[in-house]
Amino acid sequence: MIKFKILTAISLLLLSSTALSGGINVEKVSDHLHILSGKEYETNIGLIAIEGGLVLIDPMPGNTQLSQLNSKIRSISEKPITFILNTHAHSDHSGGNEFFKKQGGKLVESTSNLDGFAHIKVKSHSAIDNIYYFEKSNTIFVGDVFDTSWHPTFYAGGTKGFNEAIDAILNLGDDQTLIVPGHGAPASKLSLLEFRKNTLEWINKIRELQQKGWDVERIMGDTQAKDILEKFNMNNESPFLPYKAFKRFIERTISVIENEKGM
C-alpha cells in the first residue's frame, strides 16, 4: 500500500508539470515547493517558499535561460530570492549563482539559519555533495548522487562514498519522502534502493570482467553488462548511451575499481 501511494503521488506530480513558454518546465509539489528545469541541462531546480523569501536550489536551466527562469519564479511568487543552495559545484548546478546573487540572493552552503531544513555533506558524485531535506514538503534534493535520466556517476567517492551517500539520503524523511535527483523525474526511496542495487551490480560485473583480462571494447559487448546498463534507462531511450559515453562509463568504473585496490 505504501509503495502504491508513493508511485501515485509521483505520477500525479509528473502529470501536473507544465511546460511553459521559454523552455522552462514547472512542477508544483506543494504550496511551499516547486521544481523547475530548462531544456539545455534539464537540471532540477528547487524553488522553496520560506518566511520572508525564497530559497533557490541549483539555479541552472541553461546559460541562455536565466532571465526566463527569473521571470518564471516571479510568476510563481512575489517574494524575494533570499538564499541560493548548490548540491555541488559543477556548472550545470551552480552556473546561475552569480545571476541570482545580483537579484539579491545570498549563496550559502549550511542551512543552519533556515528553519525546516536539514543538510548533510557526502562524497560520491563530487568531492563535496550537499544533500538538502525540506521538511514541510518531505522532499530531499540529492544532486547527481542520484540521476533518473542517466547512468550513475560515483567517481569521486567510489563504492564506499556512494553507499554512504545513499544511506544518508535514506536516513532522512520517511517512506513517503520524495527524492529529487540532479536530473530526471523525482522518485521514491524504493527507486533509490533499486538504483543502488543496480549500481553495485554494475561495479561487480565490470570488476569480474576486468579480472578475466577483458579490455574495454570486449566489456562493451558483454550481454550481462549491457543488460545491467539498461536498468538505468528509465526513459526507454534507444540507444540509451552513445558509443563514447558507454565506453567512458566503463573506463571510469575501472578507474574507481583500480583506485579501490590500493586502499
Automatic annotation (TrEMBL):
It comes from the Bacteria. Residues 42-183 form the Metallo-beta-lactamase domain. It is an enzyme of class 3 (hydrolase). It catalyses: a beta-lactam + H2O = a substituted beta-amino acid. Keywords: Antibiotic resistance, Hydrolase, Metal-binding, Periplasm, Signal, Zinc. Residues 1-21 form the signal peptide. This is beta-lactamase. The keyword Transmembrane does not apply.
